[in-house]
Structures are given as C-alpha cells and as structure tokens.
C-alpha cells in the first residue's frame, strides 16, 4: 500500500480548511510553533488593538493576514515570535454607540442616566463582537494568542498609563491650556473632524466691517503725514462674519509684507462724518467702491508696510471680557492674513479660532473666554448674559451702529458646519484642556524616527516626517466619561496640582477608601490631602485620549513597572515589527512614538509596514453607511480563507489601496489554488498507483533529466527571491513570483512536459527521477507558501511528509 492518501480531483477548500483548523486546535500547532523556539532570537510584534464593539470588516482582515504572514515567516526562519492579542476599549466611539442605544446624545442626559450605569454599558459593549472577532481571526488563519490579551480598561493597564503620565508630569511636560475645537453647544460634545465634515450647509450670515479706534497715544508713535494730525479719529477697519466673537476680541492681525494705507473717508452727509481708516491697499476697491450701491469718497493719506503697524494699540470695542495672562488690543503681524476677502486686517479672538489661539499664545497675548459650555454668554457679559451667541449677532450689530463704529453691513453666503446629530450650528470654541508638550520633544521625535525603517520608505520623511516637523502639543484630555481617568488632582484651596502615579500612592494620599475600579465615577469621589496647605484635592474630571492608551501598549500590556522583574517589558522593547493601515500614521504609529519618546526617548518599533485601504469594486471606501461592506464570513464559506489571503497578497503592493472584488477571489481560486492542487493531485494519483516512496530512492540532482534540473534550479531561484521580497515587505512581489512558478513553470511546463514519464507502467530510473523531483518541488513549495496560504500547504504537507 502507498504511504500517501488518495485525493479527490476537485477539493472542497472550505471543508479542507475546517479540517486543518481542527488539527491546529487539537495539536496546539500555533502554541508549539512559538514555544519550541523559546531561547532563540526574538522577533517582537505588537498587535495594534482593535475595538470589538463593531464587526470586523475586510480592512481588519487584510491587516490580520499581513501580520500573520510576516509572523509565520519569521517563525519558520527560526525566530521566537510570541504574539499577544490586544483590545482597545475606551473612547468616544464606544460612548457614541451606547448613546445611540440609549437614545440620548447630550452629556447632561448621560449624567442624568448615571455615569456608573453608562460606563457599565460602555464596558459591556466593547466585547459585544468579541466572538465574531475571535472567529474571524481563527478562520482566516491569523495565529495570535487571543486567550490572554491585553485590555486597555484593566486596572493594571490604567496603572501603567498613570505611571507614564506621572513621568511626563514630573518633567514638566504635562500642562493645562486651551484648545479650540468644533463644539456642539446643544450636545455639549466636541466633534471630530470626520463628524464636522458630515454637516456643512450653505447659510447666510452677517458680514460687517467694524472700526477699531486707534488709541491717541499709540497714534502719535507713528510717523504720520501732516494731513492726519488733526482731530479726525483714526480707525483700523476689520471684517467679520461672526459679530458675536467681537466680545472676545484680543488683537488685530495684519500681514507684515502687505501694503496698508491710511485713507480719509467721508461716510455720510455733513462735516462731522469723516474718519480716517487703515486697511490693506489691495482691498480698497472692494471695500470702498466697486459692486456696492454706495461709493465712498476717499483720499489716500499714507502708505506703509504692515510690519510698521505692529504693537499699535486700539480701544477695546467692549469692556465685558475678563482678560487673563497677557497684553491685549494691539496689532500683531501674522502670515496667515490674506487679501482675498475683508480688509487685510483680521479680528483675532483666541477663544474662537485655532489660528487665533495659536497666534495669541506665541505673541504672549492675553486670553478671554466670555462664553460658557452651552454656547451662551457668561455673567460678565452683562447685557447678553445667558444669550446663545448666534442669537446675539443682531444686538451687537445694533450697538456698533449706535456708536458709529459699524462702517458697513452686508449679508454673506458661505458654507458653515452644523452638528450632524442635532443640527445646531457648531462653534469653534476654546476649551480647557491638558496637553503634553510634544512640540518641545520635536527633535527627539525626529531623531527616534531616524531609527525606524518605514515601508513604503517615502513615509519616513514624507507623510510621517512632515507631521513630526510640524508637531503640535498633544491635547490629551477629554471631557467625557468612558476612558482612563486623567490622574491629576487639584487643591480647592491653594490650587496646587498633583499627579498620582500608582494605586499605592493613591491609597497613601487618599482621604478614605480607594475604589476597586479606577474608572469614573468611582475615582471622582477620591479626595486627596494637599501637602501644600492641608486642603482637599479633587480630581480633574477629564478622561484621556484613548490614543494615549494604545500608544502605551509596549509597556502597559506588561503592567510595567509594577510587576517584579519586568523581564516581559524589557524583552519586548522595542518591537521589531508593527503593521496597520495608512491612517495610523497620525494615529497609532504616532501615538506609540510620542509616548515612547516622552518616557524612554527611544523608538518603540524598528520596522513599520503601512497598509492601503480596502475599497469596493468601484473604488469607493467601504463603510457601513454606504452599505458596500463585504460580508467576510460569506467569503470564508464560499471561497475559503486561503483564496482570500492569496487575493490580498497578490492584489498589489500592500501599501496601496485594494479594489475589492469577489470575482477576483474566485479567479485566484481558479488560477492559483487549482493549479497548485492539480500539481499535487497529479503527483498523488501516480505515486499511489506506483507505490512510490521518496525515502527508498536517492538520486543526486545532477544525475537527473535536464528538465528536472531546470525546475529545481528555477525553484531555488524563486526561493531566494521570495525570501528577499518578504524581508523588504514586498509581499506582492513574493506572491506573484510564487504564483508564476506554480502556474507556469510547474503546472504548464514541467508537469505537462513530464507527464509521460509517470505513465510508464514499469519501474525505471527516469520515472524515479521525475517522482523525486516533483516530490521535492511540492514539499519545498509547501514551506515557501505556508505563510501565504497556511491551510492548503498544511494539508498537502501532512500527506506528503507526515503521512
Ligand atoms: Zn448637536
Ligand atoms: Zn492646597
């Protein structure tokens, strides 16, 4: 009897794969493949943690098979390559899903519902689809330890994150500032840029030209022509479409290089209606004459560069705002000023614009926030206290008119963002926020990036490198509920600030017991003693950005530095390899580098492969709302995991987008999988008839027929090329070389040409040569192909070698 099992001509790949899955489970093949290599050189991988509150989609499957290929390959090359799964469990996306279920969408409603109950729901929801994730992971053949994953909401994980934040705090890199964010005043929620993009509408807003009166003493500093030395008041003319923001005005910005003019303008009848205005010369026509019902008589008195206007002071329009931390009501120079619209003089309110905020911060100007979290004016803005800002526009315009400082009023059509959930106009709004001073670590980030190999290489100095060059401070805090609580306590009496770095420390300083669960709302109740004044310290209510959680994975997954010894962390740092989709350049790829640079000043990974996205067959990004997401399970059940994997590997360079097509997968099955199977089937059919056994025969390759020597030489070439290609993550090159070899060299050429040699009924040396050659080629192919298509190769290998 033959040592080989007979095979069907047409295999059922899906059933074959299920058999192999059962075999792997039974024999613990994955676990053993890792354990057997313990003590060898380590290949460290970090799993970018997904969130299991939604179903895995084709993009997740793509990253999973890419990870698997590299890890199987490295294992086969002899490396000890343990891999541990992880789950990202905090953050706004989790909260939003729960809000939807509860039918609520404001922070107030969450508080009414109860933070405790709300967070419990968040916690439950993050593993809602764990089973589907585990199943899909197993089904696609991604070998990873899903039994003991790291989970970002665990106390041990949070404690490590706290430890790291304390390190950052002790170095003075954690500070409180303001961040201007798009904010829905009704939902009381910050919106992500993605959410903002969903809600643009064309609206008509007021468009007003406002006169800011130059201070007398300031005026006299300037070189001036004799004609302006008179009693006529001098004004800067600025334009805005958001009159309500004038309450928060701190400065006026001009471009240092543009030419500005001082013009005498007659605004109406009579002698006392003259004023002198300053504006950009290039805007004169638009502002003072053309396209308007009204044309103004004006006379240019002076020309000068914008830079000469710097530091000139003007009278505040309103006196309501409480201004803190610096000078105000003066002209500054700024390169972002343009001559496309307005007057070339830009009204600056740091509370209501990101650019405004930055320019004030850099210029050491003051800050004022006259608006509360519901978008209403605060008490200090007496006549408008409690009024929603957009409703105040008309009142403010009326005041300006009465005081004679409204130069001109029009209407303006433009596109403005609204809340996609409730339809309220969004406000750009400065919120108190805690920051990590990443901009001060810029050089370290860049130096650490130098030590990282990027695939594709252009990302290193391109998309990622540019991002680092212009890095801004990391706005870390979120005024939300479900996240790692920010570990900062502030004294209600003296304002002292303290960052708690461990549970032990929390216990030592807390008045009263420390909760078992470190999340809100329990942690909010923990009051510390102030070492400065003996007063009570309360925790800042915020939680932190969940990107900081996942960025801490290299150490927090090992509960570093709290576990004794901490060999786990040291042995696994830095990682040799990570891979995720391209959108992670500003996500996880960055947050890993940022946290690691701030804590250890080292790169957290040495090789990073950035993957393309999966588009539908029309080239549109797959998304739930578009209804074009492919059902991955249907593909597993119809075509099998190998065909899907092979499709992903051969579709194109891994860093480019893939236009997903089910037909493409079917064609892979036809072309490649069947060619491979048929070659194997051919061998098995005749080997069983002839009772061929590879162990009985030994014929050196040089004594075989030329065609045998040719196919073996081709295989050796492919072997080298495939290894070289995988080493540089040119996965598609490796896969295509293998496909070409199987379909053309082996199936279409070697087997077709050699068929007759197998048909000879009696034993003869040439037939033995053919058998041996085909056998050796198939066994080697199984090994070369194993990282790509692990099921069919395992199956064939079992029969050829183990059988
Ligand atoms: Zn809203
Ligand atoms: Zn105190």
Throw out a few tags for this protein.
single chain; 803 residues; alpha+beta; Rossmann fold; Isoleucyl-tRNA Synthetase, domain 2; six-stranded mixed beta sheet; five-stranded antiparallel beta sheet; 28 helices; 27 strands; 39% helix; elongated; binds zinc ion
Describe this structure as you would to a colleague.
- The protein contains 28 helices and 27 strands.
- The chain has 803 residues and is an alpha+beta fold.
- Helix content is 39%, strand content 18%.
- It folds into 4 domains: 24-169 and 547-638, HUPs (Rossmann fold, 3-Layer(aba) Sandwich); 204-414, Isoleucyl-tRNA Synthetase, domain 2 (Alpha-Beta Complex); 487-539, no CATH class; 661-802, Isoleucyl-tRNA Synthetase, Domain 1 (Orthogonal Bundle), CATH 1.10.730.
- The structure holds zinc ion (2 copies).
- One zinc ion binds next to loops.
Structural class: alpha+beta
Helix content: 25-40%
The CATH C-level class name of the largest domain = Alpha Beta
**What is the CA-CA span between the terminal residues?**
12 Å
Any ligands, ions or cofactors bound here, and which? zinc ion
Strand content: 15-25%
- Strand order, sheet with most strands: 10-8-9-6-5-13
Query: What's the domain count?
Result: 4
